[in-house]
Amino acid sequence: MKKILPLLFLLYSVAAVAQQHQQELSALLEKEQVPGMQLVYTRKGETIRYSLGLAKAGTAQAVTAATTFQAASLGKVVLAYTALRLHDQGRLNLDKPLATYYAEPRLRTQPRAATITARMVLTHTSGLPNWAENPLEASWKSSDLKLKYTPDSC
User: Fold this and answer.
1) Which of 19, 43, 69 corresponds to the end of one domain?
2) Which contiguous run of DSSP H or E holds residue 22?
3) What CA–CA distances, in Å, run from 25 to 1, 15, 49, 101, 109?
4) What total of structural domains would you count in the chain?
5) Both 65 and 103 in a single domain?
6) Do residue 138 and residue 91 come from a single domain?
7) What is the value of pTM for the model shown?
8) Coil, strand or helix: which one is 49?
9) Signal sequence: where (predicted)?
10) How many other C-beta atoms can be found within 10 angstroms of the C-beta atom of residue 118?
11) Do the domain assignments include residue 109?
12) How far, in Å, CA of 56 to CA of 111, rounded?
């Protein structure tokens, strides 16, 4: 019993802080007129997730953990940072074809794709298109990617 009481107090404290953060985030959404958001972060090995507001303004559809938002070009910055960190750690060779790390099924019909390196992707010389199809469509995950030009030719 002595061990259970501190554990229950800790769980209650964590729940109270999470509720306070959720209320603060909801107030910020309203103040800034943002329909909805997802926030996920990890601290000391614990992942905290918030899904707040509406998935689309003017609808009643709530944001859930499964809601997909378009992030536009934000992914480019995250990918560049991650690739360069992996390179610094000696885990990614910028000039080694990416196909040696992972054979992307969507490029299976493009033999020239076997020469694409991380450096080409980071410098926008891979020949990959900006958009293959609408990424929100169900077919996007399986649609073939077609190179717009020969990798490293520009």
Assistant:
1) 69
2) helix 4-32
3) 36, 15, 12, 39, 46
4) 2
5) no
6) yes
7) 0.60
8) strand
9) 1-18
10) 22
11) yes
12) 40
Asked if 151 and 115 touch (Cβ cutoff 8 Å), the reply is yes
Residues 6+ apart with CB under 8 A from 86: 92
For residue 133, give the nearest of 121, 141, 123 by alpha carbon. Answer: 141
Q: What is the pLDDT of residues 35-45, one digit of tens each?
A: 988 988 888 88
CA distance 96 to 118: 7
What is the DSSP secondary-structure string of 83-120?
A: HHHHHHTTS--TTSBGGGT---GGGTT-GGGGG-BHHH
Span 52-97, pLDDT tens digits: 999 988 999 999 999 988 777 788 899 999 999 999 999 999 999 9
How far apart are the C-alpha atoms of 101 and 114, rounded to whole Å? 11
* DSSP result, 29-45: HHHHT--EEEEEEEETT
Is there a single domain that holds both residue 79 and residue 104? Answer: yes
Which of 22, 43, 69 lies at the terminal end of a domain, its last residue?
Answer: 69
Give which of 40, 67, 73 is closest to 55, Cα–Cα: 67
Structural domain for 94, as ranges = 74-142
